[in-house]
Amino acid sequence: MTPAVIKDLAWIMHLHENKTSDADWFEIAVIHHTECGSGLLADDDLRAGYAARGGWDEQTSLWMAVLEPSKTVQEDVAKLRSAPELAPGIGNITVGGYVYDLATGEVTTVVQ
Known about the structure:
Layout: H1 3-19, E1 27-33, H2 44-53, H3 58-63, H4 69-82, H5 87-90, E2 94-100, E3 107-111
Parallel strand pairs: 1-2
Antiparallel strand pairs: 2-3
Protein name: Carbonic anhydrase
């Protein structure tokens, strides 16, 4: 959950609050999936090469690796729920966390 995503969500929440505030359907759904390619960021050599190429620094890249989607989706939901930029409207909307299993096609609710 990057600052850019939080900024985008702040805008979307602002729109919702001002254009569709009576709607009860609004939810921020954080969805991670199994077999995520970002898990390769946990590989030291690949991560170092990416950082040297001008990508994210190595620590940020390692932080972005999704190895356990049910865990990382919980972390991302917690970040959203505590983000000061979202605080004015966070009590009026739902932020849920889900995991999509590529093998079965099933979506599991991890955080309601």
